[in-house]
Amino acid sequence: MKRELFEKLTQWKNDPSRKPLILMGARQVGKTTLLKKFGAQCYKETLYINFELEPNLAKLFEYSLKPNDIIRSLEIEKDTKIIPHNTLLIFDEIQECPSALNSLKYFCELASDYAICAAGSLLGVKLMHTKGFPVGKVNFMHLYPLTFIEFLDALNEIKLKDYINDIKNIEPLFSNLHEKLIQYFKLYLIVGGMPEAVMSYSHSQDFNEVQNIHQSILNAYSLDFAKHAPPDTIMKITLVWNSIATQLSKENKKFIYSLLRKGARAKEFENALAKERDPSRARQLERKVAQWRAWDADRGVKAEDHGYRDFTLDNGSQRSALEELVRWRLWQRTGGGLMAELGSHQLDAASIFCSALRKDGKKAHPLTVHAVGGRHIFPLDRHAEDHVYCMFEFPGPAYEPDFPLGYKTGGKGVPGFDDDPNK
Description:
- The protein is of the alpha/beta class.
- It has helices at residues 5-14, 31-42, 58-63, 67-78, 98-110, 123-127, 148-154, 158-166, 175-191, 195-204, 207-228, 234-242, 244-248, 266-275, 281-286, 321-332, 336-349, 384-389, and strands at residues 21-24, 45-50, 87-92, 115-119, 139-142, 311-312, 318-319, 369-371, 375-377, 407-409, 412-414.
- Helix 7 packs antiparallel against helix 8 and helix 10 (195-204) runs antiparallel to helix 11.
- The longest helix is centred in the middle third of the chain and has 22 residues, at 207-228.
């Protein structure tokens, strides 16, 4: 699969002032695959080290943090030659070796000619408890699940992908093209962006297999709580995790703890939730909705009242009226939590800054969000169809000279309309 972050990795490689790179991201979003592909295509040699599979290698970093000592020890242990600029060192699951994480500081200061990429799924949890973390001595990138553009590419819809990327002016699409894009977009809502699920669907077009993969990933996330969370908070964190889909579907977007279980109070869960408010897990707890658990939000709905009946599929499996109602929701009423989740993911992956400040420095509720490349996104109170249509490029409303909208792009601030080079 082609990932848009690959281009940023090549830019990092060619940056003369680069630092060791830490690639962050949730479990199973494709970090290891991307780094291995990067090494294979951009370097003469790649040395891959997985501290979870090879815990004995952690001892090499406990003996000395000097880059020359570490390089020499790795060369002996792996029977290879590590050549500056020509060899990519990949430290995977680096959270299992805090000393290796600390060593990145010294590679930055004393041996910056070595190309090092580190990755780990639980870095957000581990970094908070690691002494001597190399603050200011590493570069960060974040890999997300596949975006809609990457999804089209993975399904070999190259012409559709290129068509979207080449759009310069917003104008109505041909009806057949529009319908095809909408069908793929709905498919994207069901399959999602996790690489394993997308790969499975591209090979088999089997939704049952996709759902099994989704459930396996969710189970793995839940097991992480038991492995890494303090014993007294595991149950609370699990309750929070299981309620995310329901919470996102509410009209009131405030997190309601009483929905977790009868009689629950905020104080019981705030401590557990706070312990997970780190760069990686926060996105899992607050944004990553489990699509196939969306039926939780419809438990009180009588599917029969909407004309749905239980029926049998061609493969002999039984599908309930409730499940069919949920599928209707995903395909026809794409609003609320699901659409908000989709939108936040696309914006995160594009590194779009979604905020605004008034000229007096106070926060302003933006009527429109000005995004990277002179694009605009509709405000949150517009219909879901608007969000779908304008996700990539659409002129925003009420962006006038007297509207003090500020935004950031490329690390630089633009205070408002008059100073906007893209106006």
